[in-house]
Amino acid sequence: MVREIAVFRTQEGQAEAFVRAYGGVANMLDEAEGSRGAVLHRGVEDPDSFTLIVEWDSVDTHMALKQKPRFESFGEAIGSYHVGQPEVRHVEVVA
Question: What is the DSSP string of 17-70?
């Protein structure tokens, strides 16, 4: 299993709208082939910062989703609320 970690900031005053928009499309990640579920975290000290953690069977299953129109719809639904591109990395448990 691999975890995708995406860290990003919402535009000022857009955090609540972003949370609602994400709620409307979260099922796209949860139901994607190879996905084991996704959880969105909000910064406590900085409520405009968010961390999305998605568990995948492999990096390949994540990359395959990025090639599908469904991923484009997901990005369109939440993309206008955050600033720039999220910092994305993949990690796996080692200990």
Answer: HHHHHHHHHHHHHHTSTTEEEEEEEE-SS-TTEEEEEEEES-HHHHHHHHTSHH
- What are 37's strand-pairing partners? 55
Instruction: Indicate yes or no: pTM above 0.85.
Output: yes
Instruction: Find the CATH number of the domain harbouring 33.
Output: 3.30.70.100
Q: Which residue has the tokens 């082939």?
A: 33
Query: Residue 44 belongs to what domain range?
Result: 2-91
Distance between CA atoms of residues 51 and 46, nearest Å: 11
DSSP H or E stretch at residue 78: helix 69-79
Query: Residue 82: what are its φ and ψ, rounded to 5°?
Result: -105, 160
Report yes or no: 8 and 86 within 8 Å, Cβ to Cβ. Answer: yes
Measure the CA–CA gap between 14 and 81, rounded to whole angstroms. 6
Tell whether the model's pLDDT for residue 29 goes beyond 80.
yes
